[in-house]
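Posted in: Structural Biology > Protein-Ligand Complexes

Title: Requesting predicted complex, beta-D-glucopyranose in pocket

I'd be grateful if someone could produce the 3D structure tokens for the following input. Sequence and ligand are given below.
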Amino acid sequence: MRAVGLDYEHRQLLAFESAAPRLERDDQVLLRVSEVGVCGTDRALASFEFGYPPEGESHLILGHEAVCEVVETGRAVTSLRRGDVVVPSVRRACSPPCPSCARGRRDLCVSGAYRERGIFGLHGYFAEYAVDMASDLTRVPPELAGCAVLIEPLSVVEKAVETALRYHEPSPETALVLGAGTIGILSALVLQARGLSVLVHSLEAPDHPRARLVASAGVQYVPRLSDERSDIVIEATGSPVAALEALKRMAPLGVCCILGSPLDAEGVVPFRNLFEKNQTVFGSVNASPSSFALAVEDLGRFDPNVLAGMIRRTRFSDFDETILGPQPSIPKTVHVL
Ligand code: BGC
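-- Reply #1 --
Done. Output follows.
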């Protein structure tokens, strides 16, 4: 089958032929991949900043934001049927399982020996077919299939927002999101749906398509930050400089989630505020099964026009441009397979 991925020997992004996977266990499902989204992680993988192929192999099939159709189910699978549309989760448990993985929260894996499809040691979904355990798949109602590629990034946001709201002392009212990419916009939609008054700040001018998309969702877009402080701050930029800025934007009792930046920042951390104003900073990565379920629920709640405006579809073969080229103005690029 055709696949797109990384050759770690020649440090190259390329399309290649790979053996189509087959069911090996009764609880597995064979999937035909219909769409794969591209995100900042794929770009970082393609610059070999992190990631690694399966043990003993030189290639890694990319793709961790996928929409698939069930083609065949193992005999023990009762939850899914041929023709169902599903979205896979990304992370797989460490072995032997750490306490988090053992209780089904591999997103909170403490051993660090987890693997992730299309990222760390397991092939992803940028290929014609894939096999997964039924328990790693979330079924998508047919009416949401057109925006289902947003479920994986939305699950990551759901976990972060749920954690932020839980950490905040009663009744946060305001939120600031830094970044107007997919994660930033989805964060704004989730916070708005939870009743908060939300501001999105990013570097794009107010007439940029991303800024207009934010505004079309009824969320205020601010190209310049004021001195205003917010109860919840979500950093969704990927920039350590912005992450440091996020820490300075918290109101007393504020909670800040570092969601986009995997890099360390150089600069002054506002410890005095953290201490005197009882503030909380936390990092969040990946998502739990309940966050996937919540993502499906929320997707059905959000304005379909805003969701459609976030997605740009392109061909299987355009991967060079979408992964190595400049960032397009529409936040989510999706390859149709
Ligand atoms: C994915 C997460 C994953 C993270 C780190 C993100 O792009 O959405 O599921 O855990 O990358 O690898």
